[in-house]
Amino acid sequence: MGGRAADFAFPPGCGVCGAPLAEPDALCPSCWGQLRFISAPMCPRLGIPFAIELGPGALSAEAIADPPVFDRSRAALVYNDLARALVAQLKYGDRTDLATLCGRLMAQAGHEFWGEAPVLMPVPLHWRRQAMRRFNQSVLLAREIGRRTGLAAMGGGLRRVRHTRQQVGLSGDARARNVAGAFAVSPRLLERLGGRRVVLVDDVVTTGATANAAARALRRAGVDHIDVISLARVVRQGD
Hints:
By secondary structure, the chain is α/β, with parallel strands linked by helices.
C-alpha cells in the first residue's frame, strides 16, 4: 500500500523523456516505438543485423575483414538516438533503476548463450572513473541478467589497470590504441571459472575495441570461450 501511495504521489516516469507511466522501469509508448531491436537474420559472429537472410554461417563484411578476438557478440538494440538517450540516463542521469529494463532486454538478446551456463563478467572501469561515477553500469546490467537467467556474475576476475581516456569521438584505430593493454586478469581466474565460458557484459559496442581488449587479456590467461552481450551496438550505414 505504501508503494502504491508513493506511485500516486510521485508517478513513475519514462526512463528517457520522463512522461508519467503506470509502471516503473519502463519507457512510454512514444520512446519505446523509437527503439530498433536486433533480431535474426544477423551475423553469427558480431550480431550485426542483415537486411535479408544470407544463408547459414554467412558473416558480415566487418567480421571477415577484422575478425574479433571474442567468439560471438549479441546486442538488444541498434544504437540510435533513443538508445543513446537511454544509455545516457543510466550512466549519467542517476537512473540506475533503468538497469532493470536494460537487463531484461539483454537477457532476451543473449538467449543463445545462457544454455551453456557461462559466467557473466562485467567490463570493469578504472577505479578513478568508478569513483567519479559512483557505480559501474556494466555491473548493474550483469546483476540483472544474472537475476533473470540464474547465472553468476563474477567481479574482480578482470581488472582495468590503465586509466584510459573516454572513447567518445575517437576513430576505430584510436579506440583500439586507447584500450590496448588496459585490462589484466587475476591469477586465480581459471581456477574460479572451472572451465566455464565467459560472457563479457557492457552497455554499448561501438567498434568492438573495448570488448576485444578485454577478450585478449582473457585469452592470454587461458580462457577458451568468450562471448559479449551489450544493450546496444553501433550499426553503420551499409552494414
